[in-house]
Amino acid sequence: MAFPESFIYELKARNDISEVISNYISLKRRGRNRVGLCPFHGEKTPSFNVYDDHFYCFGCGASGDVISFVMKIENLDYLDAVRFLAQRAGMEVPDNSYDNSMNNLRKRIFEANREAARFYYRTLTSPEGRVGLDYFRRRMLTDATIRHFGLGYAPDSWTALSDYLIGKGFKPDELIAANLSVKRRSGKGVIDRFRGRVMFPIIDLRGNVIAFGGRIMTNEKPKYLNSSDTPVFKKSENLFSLNNAKNTGSRALLLCEGYMDVISVNQAGFQNAVASLGTALTSEQASLMKRYADEIVICYDADEAGQKATARAIPLLRDAGLNIRVLSIPNGKDPDEFIKSKGADGPAAFKAIIEASGNDVDYRLQKLRADFNLSTSEGRVGYLEACAKLIADIKSPIERDIYVSKLSKKFEVDKNALNLQINNLSNRNKREDRRREMRKIRSELNGTNDKIDKERHTKLRSTSAEESLLAHLINNPDSLKAIKQYISAEDFQNSLMKRYFEYFSGRIESGLDPLNNIAADFSDDERSRMYQILSKYSGISQTPQSLYENIRIIKAESERPKNTADMTGEDISKLFANMKKNKK
Ligand SMILES: [Zn+2]
To answer: Which of the four, 108, 119, 336, 358, has the lowest number of CB atoms within 10 Å?
Structure first.
């Protein structure tokens, strides 16, 4: 049973969508809408639109009402998103037995993960987990740290965890969905996904165990194995230990390379450390960090892989609007090694190098020097040109001016010449960025909408009239009676549009707001397609003339003879009878 309509209606009325979204991103008014940088994909020019009752991103197709927004940004299921908004508005959630198989599965995965984390933790301190505990001890982790992070050990057995969880009442399907178990090759039964590894639980911001990372204790590959994406976990959208880091109140995060760095930096007293999960940093993770921080200190290893990762992370973090500093650790050590090498002074020494770290532009200008021979004129010109390119990417004019001044002094070149070069490059960058984004928008949106609505290409004419009619209907529910005098759901040629029409006319006839319950009644893709239609027609005034024109097209398309392939024997004999009649 779902929530009463009246409750959802009040919930939405009391949680103004622009107000809720403004807690996550900054919105600017543009005409009747508000726009901002999409929190769900990386972008430089805003394509995220907030309307009176819904949001729609022209870049990635993310869309929905205020409930869908909270579901997406807080990684909550429907029920918890409703609770979240009710709490925000000081409303009581009516008692009900809301039930939905996806919500149940998510709940079961959370429970299975929690049981698994307990199982791994207990195994670590048992004789079976000795090899894991020895490993953590060698890395000088204290018992308190092991407990704090809930570290564990997955026994070197095919079915230890699966058997244990099935004994606790979990179904094999649930364990597969949680990615704790995988199907046997033979197809019969399941085996453990993590075996013979020390385990790092990944915990979301509400304290749910959402996934695991595991490091193998032998020389086998892969060294690190992470949970695949599941209904409760997206690797590209989560960060290790953000649940700890978000509470420090420092507005700065230390971005480390892996689990062990984060943990050892934490043990040294820096709780604001996070790491991406076994993959290169993504723009989603950068947006996520922006919600909790203004400044990121990149603490990657000094080796080549670490430096490459640094170079890749800088533009992503900059695009998210974060200030960046790059830690340079003496003697090419990683943070863990550095802290340990200083013994009891480790924490203080680490703090000192954080404070001494330069920003990302200094870091990159410094790195560039190695590519040029500055003792020759050609080398100096080449270096300055490369610097101009780098500075052209900086958005703040004040910041740009600082580097231009520094370089012009140091190399005794005219500041104006340097500025001219930079401005040309920067204008070209802007044009290219815009073009690239537009291309991306088009291809991504087409991808999503094709998946859910293939017919829009084959039934172009009817789909377009049906879209326009639906938009009109939602904005003017009173027009339903008039529309129904001429057409019914049967006249719709596009089956998705037909479903929308049936859904909305059913709700309007029952005296309900057409969009009130949309988060519960449609899938993400179905919702996205519909909000795309509403956004397309938002601000376009639809006159009675355009409405009747659409009705006329829908009716005509519905009565048009179909392809012979679609015709029944009866259709064909009718057609022949007509042709004979016409001949006479
Ligand atoms: Zn987007």
So the answer is: 358
